[in-house]
Amino acid sequence: MRPRPPAMRTKRRYILARLLPYRAQVDQRQLYFSVIEAATSLLGDAAAGLAQPAVVFCEGGYVVVRCRRGTEKDVAVALATVTSVADERIALRTVATSGTIHALRRRMKPIRHLAGDEEVKVGETYFAVYRYPRQKVDLVEKGIKHQKSLFFTEADLEER
C-alpha cells in the first residue's frame, strides 16, 4: 500500500513539555495513560478523541506529545493538569508547540545537575540537596518511608 500524499494526511502538531522534578524517571507508556486520563477528564471523551493526544517520546527531562492541528491549546491545558505518573508525583510544563519534532529538538536544552552532593538539616530532618540551573534547589528527605520534597532557591539555602 502506498503512503498518502501530504495533502491528504492529517495535520499534526507537537507539544514540547518539561518534566518536573528534573530527576523523575517515568515510563513512556505510563505517561501516555496519565495524559489520556487528564485529557478525557478535562475535555471529555469526544473532544479527547478528536484531539488524539499521544506521547511520542520521553527522555532527558522532556516530553513530546502529538495531537491534531487546532487542538494543541486544549492538549497543553490538559498537560498542565497531570499530577502523577504511576504513583510518582510529577508536573508537565509546556515549553513550545511546533509542526515538526525536529524544530522542538532544537528547543530542548540539556538539564544538567550542578555539582554539590550536600546534605542539609531542616528542623530534625536531613535532606539531600539537588541544585539545578536558574538557582533552583530541591531538597529530598533522607529515608525510606514518607519522603517529602522541599523546593528552595539558592538564596533560601544560604540563609539556613
TrEMBL record:
Top-level taxon: Archaea
Enzymatic reactions: Endonucleolytic cleavage of RNA, removing 5'-extranucleotides from tRNA precursor
Subcellular location: Cytoplasm
Keyword Magnesium: no
Keyword Transmembrane: no
Signal peptide start and end residues: none
CC terms in the record's Gene Ontology section: cytoplasm; ribonuclease P complex
GO biological process: tRNA 5'-leader removal
Molecular function per GO: ribonuclease P activity
EC class: hydrolase
Native organism taxonomy: Archaea, Methanobacteriati, Methanobacteriota, Stenosarchaea group, Methanomicrobia
EC number: 3.1.26.5
Record's protein name: Ribonuclease P protein component 2
Native organism: Methanoculleus sediminis
Alphabetical keyword list: Cytoplasm, Endonuclease, Hydrolase, Nuclease, tRNA processing
Quaternary state and interactors: Consists of a catalytic RNA component and at least 4-5 protein subunits.
Family: Belongs to the eukaryotic/archaeal RNase P protein component 2 family.
Function: Part of ribonuclease P, a protein complex that generates mature tRNA molecules by cleaving their 5'-ends.
Main location (coarse class): cytoplasm
HAMAP family tied to this protein: RNase_P_2
InterPro entries assigned to the protein according to its UniProt record, in alphabetical order: Pop5/Rpp14/Rnp2-like, Rnp2-like_sf
